[in-house]
């Protein structure tokens, strides 16, 4: 039985300073608990699609619907780059807690501190909680970004090229963690990547963006060779 | 020393100013606004001169000018790459205006010196009350918006992704900064305000382990500079701003040197 969290209907989207839309007539339904990879080369509209899903860009036509309603779906987004001065006295614990916003007391409550500790445990960062962000490795930083996005308990998590600058071990380490959270807690995940091998290894579904064409599939319905063939023919 | 009412007032005002500067300075450093703070001090000079010209208290003129100009600077310099040019242009304009208003007001050179370099004996009880009231307002607003301000200052991309209203937050912070500049100018003068607003936090950045720790350390460093500066000024009869500037600058150099030394260890 399907339980949609997000439905893209005949979406056309682009930027005001360009006459040609980047995304044209895209249809896609994302179900709760899905782990979807969005694959495509530069300029095919991955960022445009993400901005539209994040409601930062209005569609030119078509729509994106969220279920049960637009305000009920909370999206956690992990961007590829961060601008954090390595000299700031910002520990990994502090960094994760930054996302606990609101007009609240400056210091964390007991339950919030507990929540941060649990999230550090879940993402394997507990032993590094007091390490300054400036001294964290690339993989540890990505895990901290992930923990920060997860602390507000999103319904949908978007990883935007999060593995792009990591070494192979750290890539697998991060995605093992995301997969575990996806399977254990049913978190819906969109993983934007150039890396076809990682997409195939970790995600159940894929959506490939190519100039003028979208290919979508379910790993369970296709053999590895078929998906590889389809993807490599276009990317 | 505390037999004299003016020294009591100076210490009280200095303490409040140091606490305010230590707290807001953390965000000035994190938001990379040291140059803007320097410019606001020059704008403060123009505002104070305007206040004198209008026969207002200089503090009121400073608040008016720094608030308006900080919003203008904030709006004009949304794009990082043009921020410094905008600030330079506005800075030049306001220094010129400051000189004009001072000239039109027919006040003597010592009045200009007081505005530029601050004055210990010039702080009366009503000034202490006004400084306290403004500082409480600034600190109260920071208390309320602290979590958003911290998020946006230390992880701007994360805050943007979370949907924090960055434009509104930036304007509110600039107004708070304008108030802080106006308040701090009362003791160190408009020319040297940025010393208390930037150096203590810049030093604290190197030694603190958390943002809260950075704030506490910055307040401590600002308090040390102000208290020792006031004491030495009382002893020597030399300008307090000279001592505060020298102490804070020396602390910064020591911090830099020890940071490098620790790195090479």
UniProtKB/TrEMBL annotation, chain A:
Keywords: ATP-binding, Nucleotide-binding, Transport
InterPro entries reported in the protein's UniProt record: AAA+_ATPase, ABC_transporter-like_ATP-bd, Metal_Ion_Import_ABC, P-loop_NTPase
Pfam families per record: ABC_tran
Domain of life: Bacteria
GO molecular function, one term: ATP binding
Gene3D superfamilies, per the entry: P-loop containing nucleotide triphosphate hydrolases
Keyword Membrane: no
The ABC transporter domain, residue ranges: 6-233
PANTHER family on file: METAL TRANSPORT SYSTEM ATP-BINDING PROTEIN TM_0124-RELATED
Protein name, entry field: Zinc/manganese transport system ATP-binding protein
Organism, as annotated: Secundilactobacillus oryzae JCM 18671
TrEMBL record, chain B:
Domain of life: Bacteria
Coiled-coil ranges (or none): none
Main location: membrane
GO BP terms: response to zinc ion; transmembrane transport
Subcellular location(s) per record: Cell membrane; Membrane
Family affiliation: Belongs to the ABC-3 integral membrane protein family.
PANTHER family found in the cross-reference section: ABC-TRANSPORTER METAL-BINDING PROTEIN, IRON TRANSPORT SYSTEM MEMBRANE PROTEIN HI_0360-RELATED
Protein known as: Zinc/manganese transport system permease protein
Taxonomic source organism: Secundilactobacillus oryzae JCM 18671
């Amino acid at each position: 039985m399907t339980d949609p969290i997000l439905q893209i209907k005949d979406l056309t989207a682009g930027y005001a300073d360009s006459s040609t839309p980047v995304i044209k007539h895209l249809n896609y339904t994302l179900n709760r608990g899905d782990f979807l990879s969005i694959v495509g080369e530069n300029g095919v509209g991955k960022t445009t699609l993400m901005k539209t899903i994040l409601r930062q860009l209005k569609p030119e036509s078509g729509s994106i619907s969220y279920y049960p309603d637009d305000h009920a779906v909370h999206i956690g987004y992990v961007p590829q780059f961060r601008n954090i001065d390595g000299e700031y006295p910002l520990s990994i614990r502090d960094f994760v807690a930054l996302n606990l916003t609101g007009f609240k007391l400056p210091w964390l409550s007991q339950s919030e501190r507990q929540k941060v500790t649990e999230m550090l445990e879940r993402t394997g960062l507990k032993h590094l909680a007091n390490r300054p962000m400036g001294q964290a490795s690339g993989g540890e930083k990505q895990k901290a970004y992930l923990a920060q996005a997860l602390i507000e308990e999103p319904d949908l998590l978007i990883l935007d090229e999060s593995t792009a600058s990591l070494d192979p071990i750290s890539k697998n380490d991060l995605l093992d963690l995301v997969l575990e959270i996806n399977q254990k807690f049913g978190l819906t995940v969109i993983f934007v990547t150039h890396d076809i091998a990682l997409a195939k290894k970790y995600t159940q579904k894929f959506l490939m963006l190519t100039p003028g064409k979208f290919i979508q599939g379910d790993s369970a319905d296709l053999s590895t060779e078929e998906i590889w063939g389809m993807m490599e023919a276009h990317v | 020393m505390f037999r004299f009412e003016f020294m009591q007032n100076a210490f009280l005002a200095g303490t409040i100013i140091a606490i305010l500067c230590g707290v807001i300075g953390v965000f000035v450093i994190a938001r990379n606004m040291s140059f803007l703070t320097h410019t606001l001090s020059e704008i403060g000079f123009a505002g104070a001169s305007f206040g004198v010209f209008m026969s207002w208290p200089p503090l009121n003129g400073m608040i008016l000018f720094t608030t308006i100009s900080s919003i203008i600077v904030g709006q004009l310099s949304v794009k990082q790459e043009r921020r410094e040019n905008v600030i330079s242009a506005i800075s030049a304009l306001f220094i010129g205006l400051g000189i004009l208003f001072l000239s039109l007001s027919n006040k003597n050179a010592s009045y200009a010196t007081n505005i530029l370099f601050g004055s210990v004996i010039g702080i009366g009880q009503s000034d202490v009350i006004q400084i306290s009231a403004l500082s409480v307002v600034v600190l109260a607003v920071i208390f309320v918006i602290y979590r958003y301000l911290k998020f946006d200052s230390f992880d701007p991309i994360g805050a943007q992704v979370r949907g924090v209203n960055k434009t509104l937050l930036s304007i509110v912070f600039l107004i708070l900064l304008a108030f802080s500049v106006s308040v701090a100018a009362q003791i160190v003068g408009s020319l040297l305000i940025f010393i208390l607003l930037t150096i203590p936090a810049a030093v604290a950045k190197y030694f603190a382990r958390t943002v809260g720790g950075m704030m506490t350390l910055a307040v401590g460093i600002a308090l040390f500079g102000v208290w020792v500066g006031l004491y030495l000024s009382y002893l020597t009869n030399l300008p307090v701003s000279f001592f505060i500037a020298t102490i804070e600058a020396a602390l910064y150099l020591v911090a830099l040197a020890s940071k490098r030394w620790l790195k090479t260890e």
